[in-house]
Amino acid sequence: MDALMLSRIQFGLTIGFHYIFPPLTIGLAGVLVIIGWMRLSRDEPLYDRMMRFWVKLFAINFAIGVATGIVMEFEFGTNWSNYSKFVGDIFGAPLAAEAIFSFFLESSFLAILVYGWDKVSKRVHFISACMVALGSLLSAFWIIVANSWQQTPAGFKLATDASGKVVRAELTDFMAAVFNPSTMPRYVHALAGAFTVAAFVVGGISAWYLLKGIHLDFAKKSLAIAIIIGVVATAGSAVVGDWHTRQVARTQPEKFAAMEGLFKTQTGAPFLILGYPLPDLGINKLLSVMVYFDPNAEVKGLDAFPPEDLPPVMFTAMSFHAMIWPGVFCLLFMVYGAYLLWRGKLYGSTLYLKTLFWLIPLPYLLNEIGWFTAEIGRQPWAVYHLLRTADGYSPTVPGGQILFTIVLFSTIYIALFALGLFLVRRLVLAGPDAAPVRKGGKA
Amino acid sequence: MLNTIWFLLVAVLITVYAILDGFDLGVGNLHLFAKTEEERGIFIKAVGPTWDGNEVWLITGGGALFAAFPPVYATVFSGFYLAMMLVLVALIMRAAALEFRNKVESPSWKRFFDKLFFLGSFLASILFGVAVGNLMRGIPIDQGGTFTGTFLGLLNPYSVFMGILSLAMFTLQGATYLTLRVGGGLRERVSAWAMRLWAAFVVVYLTAALWTFGVSPHLYHKYYAAKWHWVSIVLLVAAAAALPVFLKKGKYAKAFACSSLSIAGLTSTLALAAFPMLAPSSTNLEFSLTAFNASSTDLTLKTMLILALVGVPIVIAYTIYIYTVFKGKVDGTATGY
Lengths: 443, 337
What we know:
The complex is a heterodimer.
Chain A: H1 3-18, H2 22-41, H3 45-79, H4 81-115, H5 122-151, E1 156-160, E2 166-171, H6 174-178, H7 183-212, H8 216-251, H9 253-260, E3 266-267, E4 271-272, E5 282-283, H10 286-292, E6 298-299, H11 313-342, H12 350-358, H13 361-378, E7 381-383, E8 387-388, H14 399-430
Antiparallel strand pairs in A: 1-2, 3-6, 4-5, 7-8
Chain B: H1 2-30, H2 37-47, H3 51-68, H4 70-79, H5 81-100, H6 107-137, H7 151-154, H8 157-181, H9 184-215, H10 221-225, H11 230-249, H12 252-274, E1 277-279, E2 289-290, H13 298-325
Antiparallel strand pairs in B: 1-2
Helix pairs in contact in B: 1-3, 1-6, 1-8, 1-12, 3-4, 3-13, 5-6, 6-8, 8-9, 8-12, 9-11, 11-12
C-alpha cells in the first residue's frame, strides 16, 4: 500500500474514533446546564446528586475526546502537508479560533465543575457549566466551519506561481468563508446528532436504574430530561437533515446523486426508499418534489458528471440511507417516550426502558454514518472541485512509518476505549450515591 | 509588519506553553521521587485541575502556526513525522494518567498511571527540546521548501542535548511550582530538589549555548549587531541568577517567577536570534522558511490578529480566575470527586 492510501486509512481511523466522544461532550454539557439551573432554583439534594453523577460521566468522556483530538490538529501537517499548504490561508484560522474561543473555555471551566465543589458557590458552578457548554458549541462551530469550507469553499481566490500553476487558495472574504453555503445546515445537524447521543446515554442509563429499581428519584428526573431533549434533537435532526440535503443537491450535485443512488439525470426523479444497491423501491417524482418543490424538476444523476469526479457511489448511498431510516426510527421512539411520559406510564413500561438502554449505541452509529456520508461523499476531493485528496498527502513521509503509526494508534485507541468503557461501567454500577472518591490517596 | 507580529505571537504562545505546561510536565518528571503514595497524590493534585488548560496553549500554538505560516506547519510536521507522533503518544499518556489515576482506589491501578504520567511527561519534555534543537541547527530543506531529512537525522547529538536542556528546564519549573503548592517538610525537600535542578539547568544551558555557537554561529550575529537583543539574555541571566537566592530565603513565589522568567528569557533569546527564520535550512540558509516567505496572506494575518486580540485577553482573564480558585496549599485529604 502506498503512503497516500495509508494516510487516508489513518485519518479515517483517528477521526472516526475521535468522533465517538465529542457528541456526548456537546449534548451532555447541555444537560449539565439544565440540571445546574434546576439546582440553583430548587434547593434539593437530588440536583446535587444529579450534577455530581453526570459531571463524572462528562469528565471521563471529555478526557478521551481531548486525548484523541490533539492528534487531529497535528495530522493535517504530518500526513497532509500538501493539503495544509494549499488550504492553510483559510483552513488554519478556524482551527486556531477553536483553540482560542473554545478549548480554553472548556478545559478551564471543566476544572471548576469537577474539582470546584467546595471552592465555589452553586451559582459559579452553574456558570461554569454554561461556559463548558458554550465552549463545546463553539468548538463544534469552528470545526464545522473548517470542514464545510472543504465541502463548499467560498470567500477565496486561487493563487498561482510564476508558471501559472495553482499553488494555494487565498482568503478574500472571511465572513463568506466562515458562513459558506453548507456551514449552518451542517452545524445545526451535527448539534442535533450530538444532543441525540446525550438523550440516549442519559436516558439509557436512567432506564437501567429504573429497571433495576434503584436510584429511582434520580433516574426519573434524568430520564424525563433525556426524553424531552431527545424529542427536540431527533426532530431537529430530521428537519435540518432535510434542509442540509437540499443544500447538497444545489451545491454538490454529484455528491447528492451518489447519496440518492440516482444514476440517470431525469425530470420527475423518484425517491428511492432503500437506496442503491438495494431493490429499487421508488416513489415517483418525490425526489424532485423534496429537492425543488416541483414534481417535474430535473435532478442531475451520476451520468451528468465525469466519472473521475464521482465519489464511491455504493458506500455513499448506503451510509446516507442507513442514516435516514434509523434516524426516523429514533424520532418516533423518542416521540413515543414523550407520549408515555405525558400519560405517566414511562417509568413503568419495562419494554420501552429496556429498548432505550440497548439502543444507546444507535445514535453513536448514526453520528459516525453521517460523517461517512459527508466525507466519502465529498471524494475524490479534499476541497470540493479545488484539490483532490490524492494531491493533498505528505509526499515526504515513508509509507512504512505511517503503517507503524496506524498500528500504534489503533493499539492505544483500543486501550483507551476499553479503559473508558470500564470506567463508565464502574461509574454506572456505583451509581449516583457512591461516596466521592478521595483525592490524594489516603482517607 | 503583520508577519513580524505573527512571528512574535507564535513565539509568545510557545513561551506561555513552556511556562505553564512546563510546570506540570516537570511535576510529571518528579512525582515518582515522592516518598509515599500520599505525597505523590499531593503532587498530582497540584496540577490536576489546570494541566489541561495549560496544554491548550500548545494546541493554540499549533493552530496559529497552521493559520499564519502554513508551509512551516506542513513542512516541519511532516518532516518530523515520527517525532510528532511520539509527542502525541506522550500527550495521550499524560491525559489518560491525570484524568484516570484517581478513578479507582487500587494501589496497582495508581502505580500504573503514575508510571504513565512520568513516561508521557519525560518524553514530551525531551521532545520539545529536540524539536527546538533541530530548528536551531537547521533542517534539510531544499529549494522548493521540501524536507529531505530522515527521522534518525533528527536525533543528532546537538538536538538531543537540547532535549536534555528542556528536560532540566521543565523539571526545574515543576519543582519551583511545587514549592508553592506543598507545605511542611515536603516543601523543604522539593526546594532542595529545585536547588539541584537549578545547578543542572545552568550547567546544561551554558554547554548548550557554547555548542549552539559551534553549530549555528549565524544565530549569534544579531547579538553583535543590535544591542537591544541583549535584553532577552539579560532577562535570562538575571532570572536564573536570582532563582537560588529566593529559594534559599524561602521566597517561593519569587523563585517560581524567576524560573518562569528564565524560560521566557531562553525562548525569547532563541526567537530573536532566529528571526525571521521559522525553519532554517541546513542545506542552504537561503532556502529557509521565514515569517516573510512562508506566511499566509495579509488578510488572513489581519483577521487572525483581530480574533486573537478579542479572544486572548478573555482567556487570560478567566485563566487567572481559575488559578485563584485553585491556589494555595494542596492538602492530601480533601475530597475532590
